[in-house]
Write a structure and sequence with these properties.
Helix content: 40-55%
Number of domains: 2
Number of helices: 12
Bound molecules: NADP nicotinamide-adenine-dinucleotide phosphate
Strand content: 5-15%
Number of strands: 8
Subcellular location: Cytoplasm
Catalytic activity: L-proline + NADP(+) = (S)-1-pyrroline-5-carboxylate + NADPH + 2 H(+); L-proline + NAD(+) = (S)-1-pyrroline-5-carboxylate + NADH + 2 H(+)
Shape: elongated
Protein name: Pyrroline-5-carboxylate reductase
Family: Belongs to the pyrroline-5-carboxylate reductase family.
CATH architecture of the largest domain: 3-Layer(aba) Sandwich
Organism: Micromonospora humi
Length: about 270
């Protein structure tokens, strides 16, 4: 691994996750470049990771892979600057939520391979879920290279680009839904008289245990839930309340709203 030089263009929160994940996985620091808009941010990245922080044209000239991780609303200005300078055939990986690969292809030299990746913040602990889609000119080799870069950060899956807005709603924003749920359950523990710290500990470990069981058992979640739901027991009493309050319907509506918002944001750029 590490035969290619990767430049993280616009190394903010997500770009930094990529840099730190690649370094943790043993990617040689001399094969990484980063760019930033503010000099203070550039200095911070250089100090923290020992990575060479350069300007955008240098990154474009020197790197084999350009990982674009600016905010979607900054992408057009960035591509106006670097687009004409990107040598033909260089792989561009977009981490920008909502932006189609066609958006990049319109602003890059004809035939530039673009791969779109939607990752999520658990990349910070090497537990990301990254969904990878090829643009019009990306081949299996380009997808494999993107997978090589993102698999040290967690799991990867290939999806058609048409499913990326749904992926954004589900796994891109997904960590926030789990945190909200945990927050609500801690509040419930406090309502039941538990000290906050105890409620926190109980529910965080329960979340981790449940997640590991889901992943490692391969069982359907219904089966795992049924194993905790005895006849006339406590769990079914709670589940009746969850159903009464429309938690399942709320989840469906919430994800639809997130998907629609992803589409709206893409339409604005
Ligand atoms: N945060 C998430 O959970 C998440 C999850 C999945 C995908 N994403 C996607 O990841 C992308 C980045 O999000 P983020 O949360 O990491 O945003 P962010 O922290 O604001 O990072 C963007 C970085 O790009 C820099 N930048 C902007 N224009 C630039 C230019 N022309 N040249 C060089 N650097 C430039 C910014 O510099 P300054 O700091 O100096 O302004 C900033 O450091 C977004 O497109 C988002 O959709 C985010």
């Amino acid at each position: 691994m590490g035969g290619h030089t990767v430049a993280v263009i616009g190394a903010g929160k997500i770009g930094e996750l990529m840099l730190s994940g690649l370094l943790r996985s043993g990617w040689p620091v001399e094969r990484l470049l980063a760019t930033a808009r503010r000099p203070a941010r550039a200095q911070e990245l250089a100090d923290r990771y020992g990575v060479r922080v350069v300007d955008n044209p240098t990154a474009v000239a020197e790197a084999d892979v350009l990982a674009v991780s600016v905010k979607p609303q900054d992408a057009a200005a960035l591509l106006d600057e670097i687009g004409p300078k990107v040598p033909a055939g260089k792989l561009v990986i977009s981490l920008c939520a909502g932006l189609p690969t066609a958006f990049f292809n319109r602003r890059l030299p004809e035939g530039t391979p673009v791969v779109r990746v939607m990752t999520n913040t658990p990349a910070l602990v090497d537990q990301a879920m990254s969904a990878i889609s090829p643009g019009a000119h990306a081949t299996g080799t380009h997808l494999a290279l993107a997978e090589e870069m993102f698999s040290p950060l967690g799991a990867t899956v290939r999806v058609p680009e048409s499913q990326q807005d749904a992926v954004t709603a589900l796994s891109g924003s997904g960590p926030a839904y789990f945190y909200l749920l945990v927050e609500a359950m801690i509040d419930a523990g406090i309502l039941l008289g538990l000290p906050r710290q105890v409620a926190h500990e109980l529910i965080v470990q329960t979340a981790i245990g449940s997640a590991v069981m889901l992943r490692d058992s391969g069982e359907h979640p219904v089966k795992l839930r049924e194993a905790v739901t005895s006849p006339a027991g406590t769990t079914i009493s709670a589940i009746r309340e969850l159903e009464n309050h429309g938690v399942r319907a709320a989840m469906l509506a919430a994800l639809e709203a997130a998907r629609d918002r992803a589409r709206e944001l893409a339409a604005q750029v």
